[in-house]
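Hi everyone,

Forwarding the result from last night's run.
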Amino acid sequence: MPPLTPVDARFAPSSGAPSPFAPGPAAGSPRWQPLRRRGSLWLALLLVVGPVLAGPDAVAAGGGDLDVRKAAPGTTFRDCDGCPEMVVIPQGEFRMGFEGGEPERYEGPVRDIKIGYQFAAGRFEITNAQYRAFSDDTKRVSTKGCYALAGKVGYEYKPMPGKDWQDPGYGRPIRDDEPAACITWTDAHDYVQWLARKTGRKYRLLSEAEWEYVARAGQPGRFIWGDAPQRACEQSNLFDASAAKALPGTDIGVAPCDDGQPGVAPVGSLKPNAFGLYDMIGNVWEWVEDCYTMPHRADAPVDGSPQVKHGCDRRGSRGGSWISSYDRQRPAFRGRDPVDRISQIFGFRVARD
């Protein structure tokens, strides 16, 4: 059974890239330098109630036998070779939502959420290699016509014939370590059901509340980087100086920083958050389990569970992407799309009980 490992650091790229669709540098290449974090950073600004996160030396044993509700928070594990790497998340409380938002996209009312249980969340977004294993095993026929960036004038997103997760329209081959994109909500839901059957464990999508909780990791403000927008690129692959240089003339709001990634990036290219999760903001949008209502209904759950009774013609997505406007790269911003919507910037992350 694969060994359990402590949460550790990944790699940070230097700046510079000629194309938004050029692959990022591979881990270990000269452009990458290891990031080091001390255990004390685990609790920086973390406003949770209940067990505190274990430090970066936390290790458990058992792999697929791990009871995530009893394991030390911060423990990482895989249930099988090729399975997603997971991180144990502590129980806690937070304020969900934002009193504001775009027209027709109100993000409130703000609610007090209490997650009274531990669960595990994917350390990274599901990668092309992991999605391919599911696709091959189930002989899945992928949906074509993915919405992708088209042309050089206006950079319009439109359905592209023949485009799917195997060719999302990057103009180059995909990399195994990039997040799977052109993924519908149905694709994501079927993947977690397959993974649950494969491992005998309860894999699922995160709820909206769980997603915002782990994305914030103790940060109560509008952005996870607080009032320092120049720090946005430390954890998040978003539309920044490199992307704006590669795609000049767009009306997309540009982040005032540069992560060196002009397009989609390999998972874990930047720093993790306080929970040890990567790419919670940016890279690709992440589908969640919830049906979408606006505003949040008065009877919506406040215990971390998903809202699946109303508005199920659309499902939620969170986190923004490498080509989303800066103001949408917020933990409270809510995407909402039909379950069969397929886009170059839609992927997902998994959870396990």
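Helices lie at 128-138, 185-199, 208-216, 241-246.

Cheers,
N.
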